[in-house]
Amino acid sequence: MSEDPTRGAGAPQPQPQHQPYGPSGYAGPYAHVPQQPAPPPPTGSRRAPGRTALAVGAVALALVSGGIGGAVGAWSVSDSSGPVVNSLDAPKPETTTVAAAPEGSVQAVADKVVPSVVRIEVLGRTGAGEGSGVVLSSDGLILTNNHVVAGGGEGSNLTVFFSDGSTAPATIIGADAVSDIAVIKVEGRTDLAPIELGNSENLAVGQEVVAVGSPLGLQSTVTAGIVSALNRPVSTSGDSANQSSVIDAIQTDAAINPGNSGGALVDMEGRLVGINTAIATAGGQSGSIGLGFAIPVEQARRVAQELVDTGKATHAIIGVQVPSQDNSYGARVVEVVPDGPADRAGIPGNALIVRVDDRVVTDGDALIAAIRSRAPGDTVKITYRTSDGNETTVDVVTTADSAGR
Known about the structure:
This protein is mostly beta strands. The chain has five helices and 25 strands. The protein has a six-stranded antiparallel β-barrel. It has a six-stranded antiparallel β-barrel with strand order 4-5-6-9-8-7. Strands 19, 21, 22, 23 and 24 form a five-stranded antiparallel β-sheet that branches. It is globular and about 90 Å long.
């Protein structure tokens, strides 16, 4: 049984694959994409966190060559074919400038966004890892994932690598395992290029997006895709104090791999719409299979501001406990916290919550994700069904739980 939305509890992961991301053995367990009634979900997912090996060394590339009759690159020309034309004999084109990137193209987005995305290297006594981050301020505030900065344990050293080749040490301003958001600050920089924040509430399925980050340590890697789904509840592992958290994710088929965590998902105007966080895996494949997940920018922005202001984050709750998944199509209320928001609104025990505002709730994880996507103090409309089949809609004012319980 998972706890209520503020407690970050998640369901037992179906067929979880608890494997490290790289030779260092760090990066934690896989994330879990909670099962949806239809269609079936991926067999499991994991965070696309910091690359687990501190130094990759070299990426092995397979050189593709072909031969005819055993002679690589050789061919014959019959005597009747006429004069031989050789491209090597052609003069070099008189090109002195590169054409400007068309507005709205991936090239234009990359030109704008790459300077605002960094690689983060973490080195500690208990582990090491790498990930990505996005620049929030010219004087060094950087947004990333909690699981990236937590990779080396307490007292880790953080180094930030910029697209211009420069580096700078960084310290943690605040980190939150429940939302998987962290803010760090580099030292001695006042000339950074902050990313432009967009609006993930206006995203549409099928909309083109671009991911920028450092998969496998390959800094400033740009991949493109679309928004595959919205409001996808994804359970990811947090730190030892909070083993499970549920995020209300944007799903994308833009290639996301270990090391992309904390990097940018942007729209075609180069505005941040999400923080890349997790990938789904199947059949033991550890790389991208076109199922990546990002934290919506509205949630990331709110949590980041709280971390900057106070060093900790708050999370919205309604004061119920629900199982992550069961046989009900909805979130079955197994406990109502006395005098909590749900209790004050009249939601009874054993009620089946089926909607939050206009959003369908299919299970407990979906309810947790929907509530966590809101700020404490927001009013939401909760529609629930009682055992006699009657549906009731009530207004519930969410409250804050800074402990994520």
